[in-house]
User: Fold DNA methylase adenine-specific domain-containing protein from Candidatus Xianfuyuplasma coldseepsis.
Amino acid sequence: MDQSNIERFYDYYDRIADRLYREYKKPYLEGMNEAFNLLLDDEMKDEYKEEDINDFISWKQEIVDVEFSREDIRRSVQIGMLKGYKHTYSTNALITPDTMGMIIAYFIQKLYKEQPQTIFDPLVGSGNLVYTIANVLKQDIMVYGVDNDFLKCQLSRNLGDLMDIENAMFFQDTFTYYHQHMDVIVTDMMLHNDGTYMPYQVLNHHIDALRENGYLFAIIENDFFEQEGANIFRQEIQKKGQIFGLISLDKRLFSNRPKSILILRKKIQETNEQNDFLLIEMPPFTDQDGMENTLQQVDQWIAARKDVKA
Assistant:
């Protein structure tokens, strides 16, 4: 990761998005997407003044020969997403913090014998969580995502293309999407408590997409198991797999609603499946000794189980 490259890539699309915002009243996030379209496809969705197009092309030429790493691009785009959400008075909570992606990537590396070939986020948003994980894993991986927001779906697709990560992003309701044999599923649960608790529905629907013995990682609020229907959710999940673990995250990562990472595992055929539960409280990332001790506990727990590796 190169800080100067992060800034250089940001300057490219920020100048275009800012011009489109000021001169054409185009929302900042749409302007970002237009800048990405120009970089990827040499075209833009709308027609603009010739002098503006000439500026955009000249700004593009300033960076086309720069070698950006995947993390340069992802972190640069993340800065723009934060600015775009500020423009629309949206909460920054719509972007999953990098630390959560890094923690999930660590557990993927520990729980899978081989590098997963496919990873799926059923609530992908702009893609920061799933691409953070893909970058930590480093090797090539096919990324799938679903979102019912068309612009976010476009942004997540373009972000993957900019990083040269093979991806398939689908603009549709997550409950209408069906797939089979995904190696791993990751998602950050949105705030939703209107009627039936949506996170239960999302997890119950998409665990079917996992291959046998695969894992699903969901970022949940700490009152997840206190919602109406929690017992029914447990019963339904146990028909398909098991609640494998719960990682409590440092409360200082969140402004007001602490979260954890729930790990579900797709049902396996062996009848000697162990039922002990991984329960970990993650210390602050700044506590190096505490973090090292915690990860040693995880390693020991995994080593003691013969049925863990997927």
About this structure: The mean pLDDT is 90.
